[in-house]
Predict the structure of Multidrug-efflux transporter.
Amino acid sequence: MIAAMSYRRHFGAVLTLGLPLAGSQIAQVSLSLVDAAMLGWYDTTALAGEIIGSSLFFVLFIAGSGFSAALAPLVAAAEGRGDTTQARRVTRMGLWLAMLAALVSLPVLLNAEPIFLALGQKPEIAAAAGDYLSILAWGLFPAHAAMALKSYLAALERSRMVLIATLVSVVVNAAGNYALIFGHWGAPELGIRGAAWSSLIMHFATLAFLVAYVRHALPGQEVFVRLWRPDWEAFGAVFRLGWPISLTLICEVGLFAFSSVMMGWIGEIPLVAHGIAMQITSVTFMVHLGLSQAATVRAGRAHGRGTMTDIRRGAVTAIILSGIVSLLTIAVFLAWPEVLIGLFIDPASPVRAEVLAFGTILLAASALYQLTDAYQVIALGILRGLQDTQRPMLVAAVSYWIVGVPVAYILTFKLGVGGVGIWFGMACGLAMAAVWLMYRLWRQVMPRIQREISLQYGIKAGTAPTEV
């Protein structure tokens, strides 16, 4: 019999795993944050091009990262059962699927300019975004491979190394931006193309770092041994769990990316302010994403061991921690919006006052959906840990695209609310997703898992905390 962990131990376990993952997510988003800040000081048209260009890159990256994300629950469950061989098998095939996803997305990124023109973007912004993506597109391959290895390491609860790898990438990217955007240290002044080259170098450096670590620190895992050999059973397992995750991520990230497109229809200043506000809110969201990833691993391991009480307690712990972060975030956004927005605009810029005014309104509006955004991603993380991904995909599609996008469009362009209407629409979609996913977790999936564990181990449903 395995005794269930106390709530105190769950808080410690989630924080030990989740804080480095949250830190790595913040460091990850700071890559585009640094790009935005430096390009904002360089040229606002270049910044606008980077905003929509990086949005497309991120959407396509996320579209293929579901296969990498699927590794966390699969590896965690295998490790919970003590099956290291299965953990290795699914990781290898996760790398295969990651490379296939990058290959499928590449043509879209290499032909980005006409896509943006067709979406109604200004020619100069579309051209800047096209230049940016013509270089950065090749970074999809190392970015996807690195994502798969990070997911694998997180499932092994080696989240500190995930954080270190991401911090390495931040340093490489910041130094490259400083040199190549502005032409410092004898490098050519490349502007937005310099930001793209810096990011490309960073993705390859991050992958090299992670491969070296896995090879030398985990030689017994043999992840890269016979990597060329297909394993169709493991391939199928990763694919079945991963494709719904990819579509779920596309629905959510696509909502935010399309919000940038809609804001671009209004004008360059609203788009710049929107991009800055999105960068700031994405930093706080990464904390919730890190906690969600920790919840995925903890739920996966508890599921692999068959400990229902630990599944429930781990879920409650993640929800409480995410709620605390949300309340702190709301307070900061309402208290210091101008200070946060002002970090991204040159004090001498002629458009500084306009960007500050519009961005302050958007950042205050974002306080509306902090709790709901947090709870929808936490619920998704726990459900993935329990290997429930297809129904959450449908929830995301309906919430974000049947509710969120239409509400944003109607408020902004039909009722004349203005750019803030786009943010109100996003808040509606996220609220619906949060309520629906929490209902599925507690009223549908938890009872099903309880029944499965009871049948497997011959335990009555609803037994006390000491379980198999």
